Amino acid sequence: MLNHVINKRFRDRIASGGALLLPGAANALSARVIEDIGFEAVYLTGAGLTNTYLGMPDLAFVSLPEIAQHTAAIRDATELPIVVDADNGFGNGLNVRHTIRTLERAGASAIQLEDQKTPKRCGRRGAADRGGSARHSGDAGGHAAAGQPRGGWQDPHPLGR
Predict the structure, then answer these.
(1) Rounded CA gap, 90 and 101, in Å?
(2) How far, rounded to the nearest angstrom, does the alpha carbon of residue 62 sit from its chain's CA centroid?
(3) According to a count of CB atoms within 10 Å of the terminal CB, is the N or C end of the chain lower?
(4) Which residues, at least 6 apart from 3, have a Cβ–Cβ distance to it below 8 Å?
(5) Along the 161 residues of the chain, how does pLDDT read in single tens digits?
């Protein structure tokens, strides 16, 4: 199935309301298992990817090309919509825009951006340095993410954390 068809189905599902459970996948095999079990979408978890791919904690060791590579592998392995953890967008506003376009091309249906300062700190460990929502704080990354990528916000859908 083509990515734009998957993304439209995902947008329609979100618009219909109700809870949507997004199990985390660390790789294409786990995404395939998630699809086989019957879930409606999959979440490419940054922590899961970093832990299983590098054996490291979720402290920004995985780069954008690596996340894009895993996104593309999951896209090839499943027809589920993919929500991708893009950390803090890998830098300033220009980097955020580049991150969105790169993950869009790799097959992301939605992208989660965190409003953490660099260097990243894992929020589950109580050390995250968050400066408020990027969309509301005037942060350049938030403004870049709020700008329209090629094709509007149809591909991919923006998410914030």
Answers:
(1) 13
(2) 13
(3) N
(4) 75, 107, 109, 155
(5) 888 999 999 999 999 999 999 999 999 999 999 999 999 999 999 999 999 999 999 888 999 999 999 999 999 999 999 999 999 999 889 999 999 999 999 999 999 998 876 666 665 555 555 454 444 334 555 555 555 545 554 555 556 55
In whole angstroms, give the CA distance from residue 11 to residue 54: 32
Q: Report the Cα 58 to chain-centroid distance in Å.
A: 14
Place of tokens 């920004």: 60
Rg (CA), the chain: 15
Task: Tell me the domains of the chain and their CATH numbers.
Answer: 3-160 (3.20.20.60)
139 by Cβ neighbours in 10 Å (0-12 / 13-18 / 19+) ranks as: buried
CA–CA gap between residue 129 and residue 144 (Å, rounded): 20
CA dihedral 103, 106, 108, 109 (to 10 degrees): 120
